[in-house]
Amino acid sequence: MKQFFGALKSLAVVVFALTSSASAQTVAGLRLYEQNCATCHGNPSGPRNSPDGTQLRKLSAEAVYQATNNSANCPKELGPDFDSGSSPILRTPPDGRRILIAGQKSGMVWGHDIDNRGAVVWKAQLVDKRALGMSTSGGAADDQHDYFGLRNGGVASVQLATGEKKWSTPEDDSHSTIQLHGQTAAVTAIPGVVFSGGWDGMLQAYSTDDGRLLWEYDTAREFTAVNAVAAKGGSMGAAGPVVAGGMLFAGSGYVFGAGTPGNVLLVFGVN
Ligand code: HEC
């Protein structure tokens, strides 16, 4: 009996020790958060695009570690991320003047006359709020317009010859199951249609005439792959879809910047 109580006492002590150290950890964690993170996260006068504490709590420890380890996410001093992250596009609009179109992460698109020492023919600002990486991985063009996916959501179309905005789709994160949203991947244009993959895994097709949504497919889910490897989709960043041989090829899964990983190459055909 004595022994039993002895065991119970030490068990009780162990349990208590565990709870008290866990709550000490929570307090220490909160203090660290207040000191190092809350100047931006959850602070109304902090950067507008920094997710608040509730949103951060939904992320896995790995995602937080990865994001904070990346100085582009949580910089000591906030500065603009305004470089050009993608290759320019060379096109000849109907007026015959060759135009080089370059998208910038500030959401500005530039049209240069390459036969006139690169003179600026037009520039178009595609977003109102210039946060980080608004136009990241690249646009596409047909012979009349160019098209850019934007990190605040949506796709915008600009006239090649003048830089005039033709249409832009509304910001939309209604179907976002994961933290960030927007169209970070490069877009792909074929006659009549522009394809754009979203951070939330939605692959969408818009009409080049007016930007109306023609088709969409949620790639952020599990798949049975033809090679029998366990497969799932996630965020769509980086490269855009490829259209060849009457089919559309799109990779899904992108972890950079705390995206949702995945490992599928999806191939769509027309019925
Ligand atoms: C100087 C401001 C600032 C500070 C300080 C800061 N962050 Fe951030 N953090 C940001 C901004 C801005 C973003 C969004 C970046 C973007 O959208 O590209 C971000 C993004 C993140 C993300 C990615 C969220 C996602 O949805 O992918 C995580 C996680 C994060 N911060 C955690 C932390 C933690 C933990 C700390 C404290 C140790 C911290 N941050 C400190 C500004 C800050």
Write the topology of this structure.
Layout: H1 2-36, H2 53-57, H3 61-68, E1 89-91, E2 99-103, E3 108-113, E4 119-125, E5 140-141, E6 145-149, E7 155-159, E8 165-168, E9 188-190, E10 193-197, E11 202-207, E12 213-218, E13 222-224, E14 230-232, E15 242-244, E16 247-252, E17 264-268
Antiparallel strand pairs: 1-2, 2-3, 3-4, 5-6, 6-7, 7-8, 9-10, 10-11, 11-12, 13-14, 15-16, 16-17
The chain binds heme C.
Summary keywords:
4-stranded antiparallel sheet; 28% strand; binds heme C; Lipocalin; 271 residues; alpha+beta; 17 strands
Structure commentary:
By secondary structure, the chain is α+β, with helices and mostly antiparallel strands. The protein has 2 domains: 2-68; 130-268, Lipocalin. The protein contains 3 helices and 17 strands. The strands form 5 sheets. The protein has a 4-stranded antiparallel beta sheet with strand order 1-2-3-4, with no helix packed on it. The protein has a 4-stranded antiparallel beta sheet with strand order 5-6-7-8, with no helix packed on it. Strands 9-10-11-12 form a 4-stranded antiparallel beta sheet, with no helix packed on it. Strand 10 (193-197) and strand 11 (202-207) form a beta hairpin. The protein starts with a helix and ends with a strand. Residues 1-22 have low confidence and may be disordered.
